[in-house]
From TrEMBL:
Transmembrane segments: none annotated. One of its GO terms (molecular function) is metalloendopeptidase activity. Pfam families: FTP, Peptidase_M36. Residues 69-111 form the FTP domain. The lineage of its organism: Bacteria, Bacillati, Bacillota, Bacilli, Bacillales. This is Zn-dependent metalloprotease. One of its GO terms (biological process) is proteolysis. Residues 1-24 form the signal peptide. Keywords: Hydrolase, Metal-binding, Metalloprotease, Protease, Signal, Zinc.
Length: 505
């Protein structure tokens, strides 16, 4: 709080090049009998080549795990496609393609084939109807009706060397809108994978980037004036792309669902407003939360808060914002400077939802809660730094929001360089004590870079419990570096955390 579905990663395709480039494609104009003969010949040659290269490609020597799909003939060459199978059923999403150039030479093999050592046996297999019921449950279908036919296919997925029987169910739902593909375990009904097959819309909007104080490099001439526009504030608007929108014309997408009294909607997905319009804060919340989730995924974390979180904007008049661990949503207050006008505040609250997702109930003690507040301030500060690219507001968070309650220059919700030392400076209040924790995190980012430090910090959270202490948090940071980097930053981590009175041993 601010104060004033197992998804497995797709295996990388195995690509083997043979030194011949295919530079163009075109349709064949040869007689059908000749095309058929070429197709048969291309397949025969591809079969022979795959058997010859079976060891390198990790294929069964007799190609028993491959089913021929088709051959596409073009002037540039032939393309022979196979489907991986188990017991005659497809392995979802796993194919192999062989490219043969016009001279008959093999120029490329791209293989998704995954070897496996065993096949899971299911005694009580779900019916197709039961699998579809499970799929509707897993996508959170609100029963608004389908807009297309549901498709259901039995097959296999491969995980950890085992072929697992599953149903691939595609549900065309109106709410949540999308063509939802779910992979459901054929025995237990457990969700193995979920994604929306529809191409997402990309819209555009105006936002502060990250807030007008940081982007302008000064807060002295910026006044809230009850949400009124001013030349100084309007000059700080930046046009940005809004990714992952579901195409409904609302601010609903892969990682954010904005709920607001403004009921922002535009069928063209163009959301260009100034701050005097309540819809501006809706765009701010959508853009910055979506960007934060995409950022942590770029670090390799696809399992931290990977969901569409509800952001309640302009629904609460207090000068405060919070994450609800019971409702799993975010609320941004409109007292003072509207909290959703400051990306630092947005990032801070999203940090709470990330930690709760990693460790449910995180921050159940004073020190645990202080680490939660400190991490939120860290996330807000480094996010602001990365967007602004200037020195104004360094080691400070929420400079624009703070203009309504801070006389500092820059005005700060809190600072990350107060040099507090544990335990003498701890007062038993999570926001104040959070400054003990935020400073070493921020110093780690300054020493290693934002990406490296954030990776270590996020990795460390999984080692903690809801009641974890400062010292346990510090040890988890060092352990994460050991796991990720073989401990190469250990001495630096010792020095940074020891300076705050925290033990890494």
């Amino acid at each position: 709080m601010m104060r004033k579905k197992m998804i497995w990663p797709a295996a990388a395709a195995l690509v083997i090049t043979m030194g011949v480039s295919v530079c163009q494609q075109g349709s064949s104009t040869a007689p059908s009998s000749m095309v058929k003969a070429q197709e048969i010949n291309a397949k025969a040659r591809a079969d022979a080549y795959l058997k010859e290269q079976a060891g390198a490609l990790k294929l069964p020597q007799d190609l028993s795990g491959l089913s021929y799909v088709n051959t596409v003939q073009t002037e540039a060459g032939s393309y022979v496609r196979y489907q991986q199978t188990v017991n005659g059923y497809q392995v979802f999403g796993r194919q192999l393609a062989v490219t043969v150039d016009p001279s008959g030479e093999f120029s490329l093999v791209v293989s998704d084939y995954i070897p496996y050592t065993s096949v899971e046996q299911v005694e009580d297999k779900l019916s197709k109807g039961q699998a579809e019921s499970k799929a509707h449950k897993w996508i959170g279908d609100k029963g608004k009706g389908d807009w297309g036919t549901t498709k259901n296919t039995f097959g296999y997925v491969i995980q950890n060397g085992m072929a697992i029987p599953a149903y691939k169910v595609i549900v065309h739902a109106k709410e949540p809108f999308g063509a939802w593909e779910t992979i459901v375990h054929a025995g237990t009904g457990k969700l193995l994978k979920k994604k929306d097959l529809n191409q997402k819309a990309i819209g555009s909007g105006h936002v502060f980037y990250p807030n007008p104080a940081e982007s302008s490099g000064s807060a002295s001439s910026l006044v809230d004036n009850n949400d009124a526009d001013s030349p100084e504030l309007t000059a700080q608007l930046k046009r940005v792309a809004l990714q992952g929108l579901d195409g409904s014309g609302t601010l609903t997408g892969d990682f954010v669902n904005v709920y607001s009294k403004a009921k922002t909607k535009n069928k063209s997905n163009v959301f260009h407003y100034t701050r005097s319009d309540d819809r501006f804060e809706d765009v701010m919340a959508y853009y910055h939360i979506d960007r934060l989730q995409r950022y942590i995924q770029s670090l390799g974390f696809t399992n931290i808060n990977n969901r569409s979180i509800t952001a309640n904007v302009n629904t609460y008049k207090g000068d405060n914002s919070f994450y609800s661990p019971t409702k799993k949503d975010l609320t941004f207050g409109s007292g003072g400077v509207d909290d959703a006008e400051d990306a630092g505040v947005i990032a801070h609250e999203y940090g709470h939802s990330m930690q709760d997702n990693q460790v449910p109930g995180f921050g159940d003690s004073i020190e645990g809660g202080s680490m939660g507040e400190g991490f939120g301030d860290y996330l807000g500060a480094v996010y602001e730094d990365a967007l602004s690219g200037n020195s104004f507001g360094r080691a400070c968070v929420a400079e624009w929001d703070a203009t309504s309650y801070s006389a500092g220059d820059p005005p700060c919700l809190r600072r990350l360089d107060e040099n507090k030392v544990y335990p003498k400076d701890a007062i038993g209040e999570v926001h104040a004590d959070g400054e003990i924790w935020s400073q070493p995190l921020y110093e780690l980012a300054n020493a290693l870079g934002r990406d490296a430090a954030t990776t270590i910090i996020l990795q460390s959270h999984w080692s903690l419990t809801p009641n974890a202490s400062f010292n346990e948090g510090a040890r988890a940071i060092k352990q994460a570096d050991e796991l990720l980097n073989r401990g190469k930053n250990g001495k630096l981590i010792d020095r940074i955390f020891n300076a705050r009175g925290l033990s890494t041993k």
